[in-house]
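Checklist before submission:
- one chain only
- standard amino acids only
- sequence pasted in full

Submission:
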Amino acid sequence: MSHWFHRNALKCTTSQTYSLSLVSAHPQAIQLCDRLKTARLQALDLMTDPSSDGEVVDKQLRHYLSLLLGFVFNHGFDPNYGPTDSSKLRHYIKFKWTDSLLGAVPCVRQDSVFELISMCYEYAIWLTKHCSQLAAKPDIDMEAAKECHKCLRKAAGVLTAIQNEWCERLLERSFVAGSDLDPRVISAYIQQCQAEAQEVTIARAIELKHNPTLVSALANETSKLFLAAAGAVKALDPTKVGKWMTYFQMKSAFYESYAFCYLGESLLEQEKCGEAIRALDESERFYEIAVKLCKEYRKQKAQGGSGAKIDEHLFFRKLQPLVKRTKDKCIRENGFIFHQPVPKDCPVLELKATHGLVTPEEFSMPTLHELWTPQSYSAFDLSKNVTYVDPRQKDKKGGKGAAAGDKPEEPIPMVDEKPIKYSETDPKNQSGCQIQ
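Returned file contents:
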């Protein structure tokens, strides 16, 4: 669906040379340093292009993570510590990463877990952009639709792993409001991915003319996910998250309108014309809210990324005439046959869909790279590298991740992202869902 999704900017980072001092010139330790640098560069480069092959990106990311894991866990290399205890190398290197919503000033952490989280986060954001690229085709076929659905589920799974497992492993757990480590931001991303994956399911259900009760329930569930995402970031700085939040509110209103529209169709099939008319009145009300939010969304600025053009898409433009046709039919049949009063209270939407609900796809770490051995691990010389600064000694006034006496971090140039090539051609189908 061209211009159907809001996408935040990729995170930015500085280069890492991994030119580390060694006690001995162990060949595997030397190879590890070289491969870490190369694997990181290649993974980041692939993720600047939303059209990169998904399998290639996944393989390259996992290759880098398999190398990085030696900096995260001990893996039994030091017999004095357990396999899941921290590696002696964990605080060896400083990593700098920006946040997807907060602009170009980076967060600095001397923690390899922070690097692991940031790379995985970047991958999750790339997956959503890859989905947008796939959906931007004039006519998206079933295979592309499945890939979109899969990308969004994978992204939700990566972010869920970050939220539930890896953030808890950070030694320094403080975060700046609105940063990518803020639990509210992570939750919003997860709910966005789940909701957008369900959009694909709804589009398919409409094209296949599934039972209107099912479509209504799915649309209602999707609306609630978008609304929850908006609620997650509501308390954050509106200059940073305002456009993103409006997108969530807009999508929530749009799918609530769809939910009441298909509820009206379902009630009409049950010959409950009075209730159907009331449901369609509610659909019209939410549609007007969505139109208003579309206008508000266009006026707002965001920190990079790509905006949506929801009201220009055929799927959006088809909703109002669909509601009108269904409502006119209900009024006509009610006037000729049923003569039912239109109730004051709106019929209740189906609270839980029985099919099509999206759950995140589980994300797991790769196995440790074979170059990591007790010998290569012991070859790294801790005494000759950057001294670890205990975060508890950091000056809170020094900015994000700044140690006492440090100067504020210089901004990092934004990632030169390759643009998503959108089609301005309307889908060649009746619903405008673009899923064939």
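Reviewer check: Confidence is low (pLDDT under 50) at residues 390-405.
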